[in-house]
Write a structure and sequence with these properties.
By secondary structure, the protein is mostly helical. It has a domain of 165 residues. Helix content is 63%, strand content 2%. The chain has 21 helices and three strands. It has a three-stranded mixed sheet with strand order 1-3-2, sandwiched between helices. A hairpin with a 4-residue loop joins strand 2 and strand 3. The longest helix is centred in the N-terminal third of the chain and has 29 residues. It is globular and about 65 Å long.
């Protein structure tokens, strides 16, 4: 582990003002309830029997209502007011700022809306899985429409004078304006579309020795996933690997669990998914133990979280130095004899005709995201009806990627996200952009050659330590723009991502 561990009870904030201690005690109950709900969600996706869904919805709804009441009640308001005018250092002031932001954002939201939305989200998970398995969008459509309406009702209760979609977006990205995100999207489209076209025109083929040797059973692929987690030093006492329909990470600095899924014909799909989720877990595990239950002990935003998964997936596990050190392990598990260069090329193939976002390559992935964001926003704002989504999806797939899915299972039903939230896909692209910027800053600090040597040798502690020092340990101390500036010395920019992909794929595809 990169970050030193301390006992949770060993750093009690004894010298804090009484009003501040009271506020944090109240907020800790909120955070602990939310953490408990997260375990129930993990169980629902991983181990809960199908028949448990109705009860689980009621359990999660009750927890949400209780959490909401404790966050927004008069006692919390009084505790916040009592901290006004008290001299606080920067970290304590950040805790108060974040608690107030959440309190004020949610105080006008009726408890019954919170409870109803949570129960509907839980029930929709099962409906989505069934609809996807049966390629039946009509089965999911009424649930999707109900969820949209409840999310809009929630957003309008929070901020009746602002567009509902922007309010929803701020759930995941409270400090990065939507307008800035749209500018990044335009920069990416301008840079990625011609790069993808040049790759397609190059005629270069990068066949995968791993695909050629398949298929692989689940046990073989699980063994490979466990092997890379061992190399990355994922701690057994604070994490676990399971299987779910859609890979995800759940937890905190004491218990950060990840899931993956297996594709028989391509073991690199599960491999990269496992490393990706490890990246999310590394963020949780890098948060300060002693701040558990405080905003300073929680992750900042969906985009910053995604930067950690994208860093480990793309800037570590998709690099040639990584495969120079790991290819032997992969060959042992898969029964192959790939060279490091062949493995490196295999995990960096560009295939614009791919239909599924989570299986997409590093470049076309962002066209998948832009497509979803455009449909997402049009649906929330009422410009597109639920029945129009499949056709619109296929139209945008043809426009952006030149391919149309034969089924809704591979089309508009492929993602789990709409069964719980809207205005959330942006974080994936923000994360990729920020990951490249952080990688550039890390290499400036540690040295290009040293970073490559560390990756080649499987010595990842210095990389994890750098991320912990510059990102993880701050929790929510800084708004996003300030955190990026603290870590990299400049505001968020797409420049480093575009430079990185042009250099890497220019080399791979002889551009």
């Amino acid at each position: 582990m990169a970050a030193p561990r301390t006992d949770l009870d060993s750093t009690v904030d004894d010298d804090a003002p009484d009003a501040y201690r009271d506020l944090l005690g109240r907020y800790a109950r909120v955070a602990n309830l939310e953490s408990g709900a997260g375990v129930l969600y993990w169980d629902q996706q991983v181990t809960m029997p199908e028949g448990g869904a109705p009860a689980r919805g009621k359990q999660l709804a009750a927890l949400s209502a209780t959490t909401h009441e404790k966050l927004t009640n008069d006692a919390m308001a009084d505790a916040l007011d009592a901290c006004e005018g008290i001299a606080l250092d920067d970290e304590r002031a950040a805790n108060v700022r974040e608690i107030r932001r959440r309190h004020e954002r949610n105080r006008s939201l009726p408890e019954e809306v919170v409870e109803e939305l949570t129960e509907q989200q839980s029930a929709s998970q099962r409906v989505w899985r069934e609809a996807k398995a049966e390629d039946d969008f009509d089965r999911f459509a009424p649930t999707l429409e109900t969820l949209r309406d409840l999310h809009v009702e929630r957003a309008e209760a929070i901020a009746p004078d602002r567009p509902a979609y922007e309010v929803m977006y701020e759930d995941g990205e409270p400090y990065l304006p939507l307008e800035r995100l749209e500018e990044v999207f335009e920069e990416l489209k301008a840079g990625l579309v011609p790069l993808i076209e040049a790759i397609e025109a190059s005629g270069v083929d990068l066949p995968s020795p791993f695909v050629a040797a398949g298929p692989y059973d689940d046990a073989t692929q699980r063994g490979l996933s466990e092997a890379v987690l061992d190399v990355l030093d994922y701690p057994e006492d604070r994490g676990r690997l399971d299987v779910s329909a859609h890979p995800f990470t759940s937890g905190n600095q004491f218990d950060a669990r990840i899931t993956t899924r297996f594709k028989p014909d391509d073991p690199m799909d599960a491999f990269t998914a496992t490393v990706h989720e490890f990246g999310h877990a590394s963020y949780e595990l890098g948060l300060p133990d002693a701040r558990f239950g405080e905003p300073l002990g929680a992750s900042l935003s969906s985009g910053v979280h995604e930067s950690q998964s994208r860093f480990w997936e793309n800037h570590v596990a998709r690099t040639e130095p990584f495969w120079e050190g790991f290819v032997g392990e992969a060959n042992d598990h898969l029964g192959t004899d790939a060279t490091a260069r062949e493995a490196y090329a295999a995990v960096n193939q560009i295939y614009p005709d791919n239909l599924v976002r989570v299986e997409a390559d590093e470049l076309t992935y962002h066209l998948h995201i832009i497509l979803r964001c455009e449909i997402d926003r049009a649906f929330v704002e009422g410009d597109v009806g639920v029945s129009e989504i499949p056709a619109l999806w296929n139209e945008k797939m043809a426009d952006y990627l030149g391919v149309v899915p034969d089924t809704d299972t591979d089309g508009c039903l492929q993602d789990i996200h709409w069964s719980s939230r809207f205005a959330a896909f942006q974080g994936y692209t923000i994360g990729s952009v920020l990951a490249a910027q952080l990688d550039h800053a890390m290499r400036a600090d540690l040295g290009d050659d040293r970073v490559d040597d560390l990756i080649r040798e499987g010595d990842f502690d210095p990389l994890w330590a750098w991320m912990t020092e510059n990102v993880h340990r701050h929790g929510r101390r800084y708004p996003t723009d300030e955190l990026v500036a603290e870590a990299t010395g400049e505001p968020l920019t797409a420049e480093y991502f575009l430079d990185y992909v042009e250099t890497k794929f220019g080399d791979l595809y002889d551009l």
